[in-house]
Write a structure and sequence with these properties.
The chain is mainly beta. The chain has two domains: 2-136, Immunoglobulins (Immunoglobulin-like, Sandwich); 142-239, Immunoglobulin-like. The chain is 11% helix and 42% strand. It has a five-stranded mixed β-sheet with strand order 2-9-8-4-6, with helices on one face. A four-stranded antiparallel β-sheet has the order 1-3-7-5, with no helix packed on it. Strand 10 (153-159) and strand 11 form a beta hairpin.
Length: 241
């Protein structure tokens, strides 16, 4: 992946110099659901710019490792003309993914901007987009994912002077939060901003409570992200230490 490393270095320099930038090339969806029973899964991307871009794409696991990924991604590099749509394809290696639970990978899109011709010292910024690919074995569906989010159980954990709310997931699906908020005596309902960590299948994840929490009951409000990238129905539960 030497090519990818070069692009990453260029991206870091560009972002530091420019401060911020928006992607010209982007995926049309915010998440991809891939079923092992399908021959392939399409990923539609679009170039919002009037200029043509080369696009490099690759897959990583949740730890950032890009080797031994059980998904074939094609094409790894493609040219996308201005104001046009393109398509990537994912083929799942059925025997290489868990059959008893959902698995998740990152799909990265690195745009390679055209060389600036009009200004000698013009800064060209390359932007990377990233979205999750949820891989589901036979028998898994959107309804099961929704029920997983609704079925979370919660408790409070304390270590030293810090406290967390802990979500436990008995289902075989990952749960991503659309909303996660807490309230307790003296503290009005506020969203927990650090909620990006998913609750894994048959596992748990915890989220730090505000420093002002000193004990007692906590009211938790949450919703899970559904297959179309939006938040599902909210649930509220009061838990005690």
């Amino acid at each position: 992946m030497q090519l990818k490393k070069i692009f990453h270095a260029g991206l870091a320099i560009a972002v530091l110099a420019a401060g911020s930038a928006s992607a010209a090339v982007r995926p049309q969806l915010t998440r991809i659901i891939a079923y092992t029973t399908d021959k392939e899964t399409p990923v539609d991307i679009v170039n919002d710019s009037k200029d043509p871009f080369m696009v490099q794409s690759w897959l990583e696991d949740l730890q950032g490792k890009d080797t031994d990924i059980p998904i074939v991604l094609t094409p790894p590099v493609m040219k996308l003309e201005g104001k046009k749509q393109g398509k990537l394809r994912l083929v799942i290696m059925k025997g290489a993914v868990p059959q008893d639970r959902e698995s998740v990978y990152w799909l990265s899109l690195q745009e390679i901007p055209p060389k600036a011709k009009d200004v000698d010292n013009r800064l060209v910024v390359a932007v990377r987009s990233r979205l999750k690919v949820f891989v589901r074995p036979a028998g898994f569906n959107a309804d099961g994912s929704r029920k997983a989010a609704e079925g979370l159980t919660w408790n409070i954990e304390k270590e030293g002077n810090k406290s967390w709310i802990k979500a436990s997931n008995n289902a075989a699906y990952y749960v991503s939060f659309g909303e996660l908020a807490v309230a307790f005596p003296g503290y009005k309902k506020k969203r927990i901003e650090e909620k990006s960590e998913m609750v894994p299948p048959k596992g748990s994840a915890r989220y730090l409570l505000p420093e002002s929490y000193k004990g007692g009951k906590v009211t938790i409000t949450w919703s899970g992200m559904h297959d179309w990238g939006g938040a599902g129905a909210e649930k509220t539960l009061e838990v005690a230490p």
